[in-house]
Design goal:
alpha+beta, Beta-Lactamase, Rossmann fold, seven-stranded antiparallel sheet, five-stranded antiparallel sheet
Length: 412
């Protein structure tokens, strides 16, 4: 059996690339089933595997969902020369971009949002944690079609159960270590405790993958043993952060193999966020929120980006990093009109719809205002000779690198 982080379940495929989503550094051993014609997969260019359109879409999605706790989910991906459609979950893992693929699920896309909204509506009439726990267990159990579902309220040190609620029958005894329960930062499902593992293949000298956000990761042996002894083949563990000292968790167990698709998992994770907010209202407060001091020299930024959601998420992330966004522009003409604003540096998405951002860059250069290019093509971007050597940040965006590049441009 592989060590933690070195194998996935049989329900999908995994690719890990560098943080600019360019080169494959790690992949599941079954990836050749999708791309049999690709030759050696370690070191392959992601754009050549997935196609330019899908790889660019994934980079844009990562720019929108750059927070560690939030993977980007997309349904209906199609790759050149590959039959069928795939659902994808993509997230940053340190300096790696991790892409998980599954065959498309009937509950993908907007259906997941509808399902999450229906679950959240069922919490409105509840006031106490016991009522909320029982209702949440019932709703999640029904969504998963699980035989046993229960709600746990764990102390932050994972030392004991603070409460347990059941939907059908008595929950099995808790394992000796509650760490075997806790799934990490997102829903973790075990499709079939008796299924084989798919090992990961990595470039030499790479550390094992930190699989805390990898939904397809294989379960550890303690969890497998606990499920077998309790008489279950499948399980889903849905984490719910409640406050600084306690963590809530919903566990659904099944006697038959069952792996919830990406759409259903996404709906349940949205439900868990709403549940966490509801629990914070009914549980006693144990700590005061902490906020870091604002930087003494905030960076003011002009954003030129035609993808509205990407721009909005980028602005929020820059704000959290201590920068101040003075304006967001989605077209060349709007950006030219904004050049009289006062700002320290500009971030220019190279491609704006059907045009490029060069007219804006020319005006900024003429006015002596610093700027940084951004592009889904990263270092492959072919800049005009006049701008050769200008800094480029690649998509998916990494906020620390963007801030560093903008500050460096300002300092020149």
């Amino acid at each position: 059996m592989a060590a933690p982080g070195e194998a996935i379940q049989t329900h999908g495929w995994l690719i890990a690339c560098d943080d600019q989503a360019r080169v494959v550094r790690r992949h599941s051993a079954n990836l050749g089933d999708i791309f049999p014609q690709a030759g050696p997969l370690l070191g392959a260019r992601l754009r050549e595997l997935l196609g330019s359109e899908e790889s660019h879409r994934l980079r844009n999605l990562l720019s929108r969902f750059s927070a560690p706790a939030r993977p980007a989910l997309v349904s209906g991906c199609r790759f050149p020369g590959v039959e069928g459609a795939f659902d994808a979950a993509v997230h940053f893992n340190g300096e790696d971009m991790v892409l998980e693929l599954e065959m498309s699920d009937a509950h993908s896309g907007l259906a997941a949002l509808d399902r999450a909204a229906a679950l959240i509506d069922r919490l409105d009439d509840l006031a106490g944690p016991d009522e909320i726990g029982k209702r949440a267990a019932m709703l999640v159990g029904a969504a998963l079609d699980a035989e046993h579902t229960f709600f746990l309220l764990l102390e932050a040190d994972n030392a004991r159960l603070a409460g347990a609620y059941r939907r059908l029958g008595a929950p099995p005894p808790a394992p000796e270590s509650l760490q075997a329960f806790w799934p990490g930062r997102r829903l973790f499902a075990v499709g079939d405790v008796d299924a084989p593992e798919i090992p990961l293949r990595s470039e030499p000298d790479m550390l094992p993958l930190d699989a805390g956000m990898t939904a397809l990761r294989a379960p550890g042996e303690p969890l497998r043993q606990w499920l077998r002894e309790a008489g279950f083949r499948s399980a889903a563990f849905l984490p719910v952060a409640s406050d600084g000292l306690r963590l809530a968790l919903i566990v659904g167990l099944g006697r038959q193999p069952r792996f919830p698709g990406l759409g259903l998992r996404g709906a349940l994770e949205l439900f868990a966020e709403a549940l966490a907010l509801r629990l914070r209202l009914v549980l006693p407060a144990h700590h005061q929120p902490w906020a870091p001091d604002a930087p003494a020299d905030p960076l003011s930024v002009l954003i030129v980006e035609d993808q509205h959601m990407v721009a909005t998420q980028l602005a929020a992330a820059l704000d959290e990093a201590g920068a101040r966004v003075v304006r967001i522009c989605g077209t060349v003409s709007a950006a030219l009109d904004a050049l009289d604003e006062t700002f320290d540096a500009a971030l220019l998405d190279y491609t704006l719809g059907g045009e490029n951002v060069i007219p804006v860059a020319e005006q900024l250069e003429a006015r002596g205002k610093p700027f940084v290019f951004a592009s889904g093509h990263g270092d492959d971007l072919d800049l005009p000779l006049a701008f050769a050597g200008k800094p480029i940040v690649g998509k998916p965006y990494k906020i620390d690198k963007i801030v560093a590049a903008l500050r460096a441009a300002k300092g020149k």
